[in-house]
Specification:
Elements lengths: L6 H19 L6 H8 L3 H7 L3 H30 L2 H12 L4 H20 L6 H21 L9 H20 L5 H15 L3
Helix pairs in contact: 1-2, 1-4, 1-6, 2-3, 4-5, 5-7, 5-9, 7-8, 8-9
Length: about 200
């Protein structure tokens, strides 16, 4: 009896092969043939799931966002249970950073997508939904903290959320080029939150 193929699992395997190529060589090195070789499957199998390169790229981007949401969701859910807005914001910001080999690879792939989109003058699929979602979540937590007196009344919570997200995006890039390590980046985030919540 022939082995039953899990099509979703096969698509994820192809995406993982694409990630490995993009993280080390950039998206310009991603082709159907290169991904097939990296995944250890035939070109025909890749084309069965993704007849065109753009379809494969779109799926891989969707997969990146899913993996990022899964990773952040676990840490943020734990922080939300504490009822501590500062802890929730800290979890949101740290979840963006490349703190291990897996997240480092995924962050490098995101940067590869952004680099191509900048040169093309376009946007990656669903790129516009990522950062604003983080900013909204952080801003909502700042609003709650402000209402409870944990954040000064004069703070513009929306602008502060934008500033924190932008700072974290900068830390992400700096960590990828090893200008900062996880401990240093965490200290910077804790310092900024300490100033913000000091009143």
């Amino acid at each position: 009896m022939p082995k039953r193929v899990d099509h979703d699992e096969r698509r994820r395997e192809i995406a993982e092969a694409l990630f490995r190529i993009a993280a080390t060589q950039g998206l310009q090195a991603v082709t159907l043939r290169a991904v097939a070789a990296e995944a250890g499957i035939s070109m025909f199998q890749v084309q069965y799931y993704f007849p065109a390169k753009e379809q494969m790229l779109r799926y891989a981007w969707q997969r990146i966002t899913e993996l990022g949401a899964e990773r952040a969701g676990r840490d943020i859910a734990e922080a939300l249970q504490t009822g501590d807005e500062r802890a929730v914001i800290r979890a949101c910001l740290l979840a963006v950073l490349p703190t291990d080999e897996r997240s480092r690879m995924l962050c490098a792939v995101q940067i590869a997508y952004f680099a191509v989109d900048v040169t093309r003058g376009g946007q990656a699929p669903d790129q516009q939904a990522m950062m604003p979602h983080l900013v909204r979540l952080v801003a909502d937590q700042l609003d709650h903290a402000q209402q409870r007196g944990g954040v000064p009344a004069h703070v513009d919570t929306r602008l502060e959320a934008d500033a924190l997200a932008t700072m974290t995006a900068g830390l992400l890039s700096a960590m990828l080029v090893e200008a900062y390590d996880t401990e240093q980046a965490t200290r910077i985030i804790d310092y900024r939150l300490g100033r913000l919540f000091a009143g």
